[in-house]
Amino acid sequence: MVKMPMRWIYISPHLDDAVLSAGGLIHEQARTGQQVEIWNILCGFPPTEELSPFAQLLHFQWGISSTDELVRARRAEDEKACQRVGARPIYFDYLDCIYRRGKNGDWLYSYIFVPPHEDETDFPAQIADSISARLQPTDQLVCQLGLGSHVDHVLVRRAVELLQRSILYYVDIPYLFKTPEELGPQTAGMKANAYAVSEAGLTSWQEAIAEYESQISSLFDDVDHMRSQIRQYWSENGGIRLWSSA
Fold it and tell me: Could you tell me which of 37, 71, 80, 30 has the C-alpha nearest to residue 208?
């Protein structure tokens, strides 16, 4: 008999990544009584209201100018989304890249699809320590592959791999739809396993994503476009695929 993990721990760089990418599977796992948690890493409250020009632009697009109000609103969205799929959300206090400063006080990022800044060499180790402190020996970690090369996704994957634990990888949505050519190189030498997701799981997944009202316009054309792309991915894969290095 295969021993089930104590918990499935989905490592989510931001307040939406795990549900976007694996909400259907999370629904199926929770429905069968498995403990599923989503650990949101980069969702802390910035210390001041001062924003970089890049962050100001994104806040304008999201329709909320206050950093405190935005983080609270996004956490509220995430709580609703996690409730939809049956997962327990956990929130860490690290900052999103749009709010992080370098050693000299300058803003580190004015674009998100860039390599990590040299000032953040030690950042993955800090995140790894925080994750490690909460893990149990039988937990199964699930981490994003890093398609699209979002700097935060890259840094968080590095952090998880520092733990030297058994890791399953889930594909980054919507970046899979935007840069599908990256999937092959990112999964070269890895083994893919398909996990079935029911029609009810698909619906739960789509409804959970729709809870991220502030983010939909940044991720998809609109809600209908989101539903169509998620259904297409689900149909093509018979559910969701996870990858392992073994």
Answer: 80
In a domain, 3, yes or no: no
Residues 183, 158: contact at Cβ < 8 Å? no
**Inside any domain, residue 205:** yes
> Tens digits of per-residue pLDDT, 155-169?
999 999 999 999 999
Identify the helix (H) or strand (E) that includes residue 2. Answer: none
Q: Say how far apart CA 239 and CA 28 lie, in whole Å.
A: 10
Question: What's phi and psi for 143, nearest 5 deg?
Answer: -130, 150
Query: How large is the average pLDDT for residues 172-179?
Result: 95
Supply 162's token pair: 């520092």
Find the CATH number of the domain harbouring 73. 3.40.50.10320
Q: Which two tokens stand for residue 225?
A: 């476009």
Locus of tokens 């697009």: 61
- Whether pTM exceeds 0.85: yes
Buried b (16+ CB within 10 A) or exposed e, 146-184: bbbbbbbbbbbbbbbeebebebbbbbbbbbbbeeeebbe
